[in-house]
Amino acid sequence: MAMTLRLDESHDALLEALAAKFGRSKTEVVQIALDDLAARADKSARTRTAFDRVRTRDADLLERLSR
Question: InterPro entries per the record (predicted)?
Answer without folding.
Answer: TraY
